[in-house]
Amino acid sequence: MSKTPSFDKDRDYIGSATLPEQVHRKSVKRGFEFTLMVVGESGLGKSTLINSLFLGDLYKNRQMPNVEERIEKTTKVEKKTMDIEERGVRLRLTVVDTPGFGDAINCEDSWRVCTQYIDEQFRQYFTDESGLNRRNIQDNRVHCCLYFVPPWGHSLRQMDLDLIRRLHRKVNIVLVIGKADCLNKQEVRKLKERILQDLEDNHIQLYQFPECDSDEDDDFKQQDRELKASIPFAVVGSNTILEVAGKKVRGRQYPWGVVNVEDPEHSDFIKLRTFLISTHMQDLKDTTQDVHYENFRAQCISQISQHALRERGKLKRDSISSTNGFDAAISETDRLLLQKDEEIRRMQDMLTQMQEKLKQTHLMEMKKNDSVIDV
């Protein structure tokens, strides 16, 4: 026999406390989507790292180009999708790879394919959002870009700066030093310092970590400080399971020992995976929606308004050149002018609201940045 609730006992309870549970159930039922772009030249361990992060094999049929093909090799975009389910939560992961980036003799335009792809996804989302059927919009926007920096350089190269400078206002960029087992701890620390200095000198802003709320526990705050201090992440990837001291670990075997990719003393791999999946995946999506996409949307609406103004001027000129014998045509022109005026007014109101919202967001980010304490 079912137990009936005690209404007298819960007389002051109205049920609003269950709203988070309702949102949780609906979100889990719908599932989650995340798009990750991976950029960097060949040989930096991008494929291995992605497979290690998500415990899958996205590059089963990969073919490596020979030297002759690399001379004229161009950058292209390849999308790979995998479905991940963990404890009943479904994640549809899309990895956007850019094979050929930085591999050709002339790499001046390697950045162009990446920026065009990001803009195309924004444009497609804007078109779908402006349409009649908005119920099942597919979000293919890039939520995060992992940019791989080679460990054998002294800092960022001109090719790296060219791409990051063009992308940092379009997508959340996270820098990764690939194959960090080539360097010792002191070399990793110096390389990180030089990279951060180069970014500051070139006024480039990477993804900004949100500040911890005051009610967060001390362990989470400590974890957040460690993640911020690890930028850029120096990582090692491996799909090989080795046995060390009776324990199975994911690592790389060398004549002088084993590099355990999940050991924080050897690599920032665990920190990168924690940041990308466990703690900041939703914030990466929110930043894409609230900052980068809103910037793109404001530009689109501004262009539409300017086009409408030009059309209005053209209609006015056409109406002035019309003669009195074409009253019907003039009447039709007046009707079109009224429609255009209404459309322009509506667009300008939307643009004003979006600019005010972006201004407030920018002021909040500046206040947050001013309050950041370097670790």
Describe this structure in words.
The model has no long low-confidence stretch (mean pLDDT 79). Helix 9 runs antiparallel to helix 10 (327-370). The chain is α/β, with parallel strands linked by helices and 375 residues long. The protein has helices at residues 19-30, 46-54, 67-71, 110-130, 158-167, 185-201, 218-229, 269-279, 281-321, 327-370; strands at residues 32-39, 78-86, 89-97, 144-149, 173-177, 233-234, 241-244, 247-254, 257-260. The chain folds into 2 domains: 23-306, P-loop containing nucleotide triphosphate hydrolases (Rossmann fold, 3-Layer(aba) Sandwich), CATH 3.40.50; 337-368. It has a 6-stranded mixed sheet with strand order 2-3-1-4-5-6, sandwiched between helices.
Strand share of the residues?
5-15%
Taking pLDDT < 50 over at least 5 consecutive residues as the criterion, the unreliable ranges are: none
Q: CATH first level of the largest domain: which class?
A: Alpha Beta
Q: Work out the count of structural domains.
A: 2
Largest sheet: 6 strands, mixed
User: In terms of quaternary structure, what is this?
Assistant: single chain
User: What structural category arises from helix and sheet content?
Assistant: alpha/beta
In total, the number of strands is: 9
Number of helices: 10
Strands across the major sheet, in which order? 2-3-1-4-5-6
> Helical residue percent?
40-55%
CATH architecture classification of the largest domain: 3-Layer(aba) Sandwich
Radius of gyration: 26 Å
